[in-house]
Amino acid sequence: MSSPKQRYHFWHWITLVLSAAVILLFPAIALASCYGDLNLRSCNLQGNHIINYDLRKKNVSFSLRSQRAGHAQPFSVMVTPDAGNNFQLFSDNGESIDISLTISYRNSFYTPLRPGEASNPFPGSLNDTNAMLALEVSSSSIISSNYYQGSFQMQLEQYMDSSPVDSQTVTFTLELEVEPRISIHNLDNIYINGSNFVSGQDITGYEDFCVDGIGFSNYLVSLSSRNGITRTSRGVSMFQLSSPIESLPYAAAFTDDMNLRVGIKTLTAGQVHRGTIRHNQRGLCLTDNARLMVTVPAGSWENSKGSYYTDVLTVTVTSQ
């Protein structure tokens, strides 16, 4: 008799090991950039500060401390520009704008600062205390660039018994960023009346308007016609005046020279002309500074069959 088969049972122990990472999180601590010592110092002023021109309050936040032997000591502030004798910012092409600087300490009223002159003493503090430097652009400045910057030094002078005992100096740069804005004002319809037409002469009409804006000096002008363009028998591309009967070709031109009424280069679709905003009062458009002129050639209007022709001419200006 054969021996019974032996059955072996193998038990496989499966061990599931789950590993978990233990992460210790520390709260983020902003490390202040401080210059000076524990007796007299400024924090978070050194370096570059970017300011948006469109902000109503153009402020730089930092802190100041003035103490000695556990007692708060008064101090004065003097800001000196690295270039020139006035508070100014400069564009890449060297144009300058005037600014004013004021300082607030301990959330007090703002105190005007004058270039190279020490302020009246402020009360000191044992700890780093909030301060604010406010920038204001002079209303007479022409904002013809989209970026300005200027470097300055702030000197802190500490006093004991009305005598200076310590001083610290910190350098900083203010950067003003300007979002270019451009607009057109006073552009009305151009009406050309046939009562003054002279046989053999072109018909000309013009309209003066104002191009305004900030953050740029030059701009590009392009023209487009609702009626499209046509080519004359001489192969010249011109815009079209339309009537129910026919269309008449005409030319359009632009200039920023308000003394010109003739000799202006004409523009057709896709062409651009460069204009410049003069250094006058921007944002007000007190006077027109651009001119749009249309010309209907004599050979076109003299053979016309209609009595009323129109087109919509679109003027597009782009800051440069």
From TrEMBL:
This is Spore coat protein U domain-containing protein.
